[in-house]
Amino acid sequence: MRPSAMAVVGALVGSACVVAPLAGQGYQLRLDTRFQSVSFHDVNDQQIRGAPLVSTLDAAFWGFGLRGVSIRTRSRLGTDLLDTTAWPGTEPTIQLVEAYGEYASRLVTAQVGRTHNVSRLGYTGFDGARVNVRPWRGLRASAYGGWGLARAVPLPLTSPAINPLNEFVPTDRQIVLGLVLGWSTPKVDANVVWQREQVSSDGSASALAGLRGAADVAVRPFRGWTVTGAAEFDFARYEANGLDGQVTYRDAQGRFQLTGGARFYKPYFDLWTIWGVFSPTPFSAGFGTARVTPLRGLELWTTGETYKFWDSGVAAPLAVVKDDGWRWSVGGTFTRMRRVTLGAGYHVEATNGASSLGFDAKGAYSLFRSLSLEVVGGYRLRPLEYRINDSKVWNYGLRVDWLPVNGVIVNAGAVRYDQRLAREGTGQSFGDWRFHLGLTLSYGSGADTPSLHPAILRIPERRPQ
């Protein structure tokens, strides 16, 4: 491990230990550390090895004598112990994801520091302030602004890690301003958001980086029925980036659910990038999903989508390019047996250049409350046109989750990938392993850190990966 990585790991662990004795404050800490050992082959059949280590520290402090005041922070360390470029996102080594002071009451919530706003426009991070106001029941308004961060990462646009070409990176950090208005009733949920970004503070039109708006609404006209719709619009280019709508019906007993809808999407790029000049091609799609529970403990589902790309306006007289495709999947989960969970799924996608089909299966068994095992397996057939005629991949692995005491979660696992590449008259096979080890520590003054059942940890949103 590099010296800087060792120092940061020590600092994270040390911080978690030092905070515990602080008297007169409430606090809650969560230290989540994950390690992997990976190897894979690149397009030239060269084996690449990596050993990424990611450690995230979440901390919250309150009890400063002012009701509703708290401090929250999240920092992350990411490094590759083999000092290679095999794993993305390890530079810079230390990243401050969030760090803000908050005041919360029944009518107002205010945050100052590094925070973010999540809306139909995506994840917007910034160093500044956000104020949420709830003047009366069902109505809410929010305003936020500050020096913006790049989309989906806690780094400013001026960071060289954002764009290695450097000449395309703005010299000034962009400024983000946004407004959100929302309304909720038992029958309706609606939100409208407006957001402006500029790369300098002079307010000139040439400094504009983005001017966007979005709206979404969900209506529940009858019991079991939900109708939703949403739209995104780029005011700078005067074009829509997304439109979608769907209808969902769920019976009162929860035995089955049906969903159908359609969507339109066109990629959005900030005005300061060069990618917008390439006229990204939009696509439209129709989709449907069905879920049914014929027996207690057995759930079956299927989902499908058909899509078509719009005319790009590019002539290709020597080639026939397919501009539409479809995808479909079916599967089920069985939880009727005590301590056992079984699941399987099959999928197929037919399109130009990236078709695939295959299946996945898994089985989990809880030996007792604090220990569970999960076995996974799968198969993929990928006819990669223009590159390799066929790629067949088998994968199988094992995962273990252990909760020795309250506030401590340990997980470990290994996955094997066996791949065969078929070219004209030849074939090539190779296999790769991926190992992972995770440790999560949670504690605090009266912190809500109960021991979770391993079945809950198998839910992707609840367990460390």
Task: Describe what this molecule looks like in 3D.
With 465 residues, the chain is mainly beta. Helices cover 5% and strands 59% of the residues. The chain has a 22-stranded antiparallel β-barrel. Strand 22 (408-423) and strand 23 form a beta hairpin. The longest helix has 17 residues, at 3-19. It is globular, with a radius of gyration of 25 Å. The relative contact order is 0.09.
List the helices and strands and how they pair.
Blueprint (H helix, E strand, L loop, with lengths): L2 H17 L6 E16 L5 E4 L1 E11 L6 E12 L13 E11 L3 E12 L2 E15 L2 E10 L26 E10 L3 E11 L9 E12 L5 E10 L4 E12 L5 E10 L17 E13 L2 E12 L14 E11 L5 E11 L5 E13 L2 E12 L7 E13 L5 E16 L2 E19 L9 H4 L8
Antiparallel strand pairs: 1-2, 1-3, 1-23, 3-4, 4-5, 5-6, 6-7, 7-8, 8-9, 9-10, 10-11, 11-12, 12-13, 13-14, 14-15, 15-16, 16-17, 17-18, 18-19, 19-20, 20-21, 21-22, 22-23
Q: What is the H/E order?
A: HEEEEEEEEEEEEEEEEEEEEEEEH
Average pLDDT reading: 83
Main pleated-sheet profile? 22 strands, antiparallel, barrel
The poorly predicted ranges are: 1-24, 447-465
Discrete helix count = 2
Strand percentage lies at: over 45%
What's the helical proportion of residues? under 10%
Termini distance? 22 Å
Shape: globular
Rg over CA atoms:
25 Å
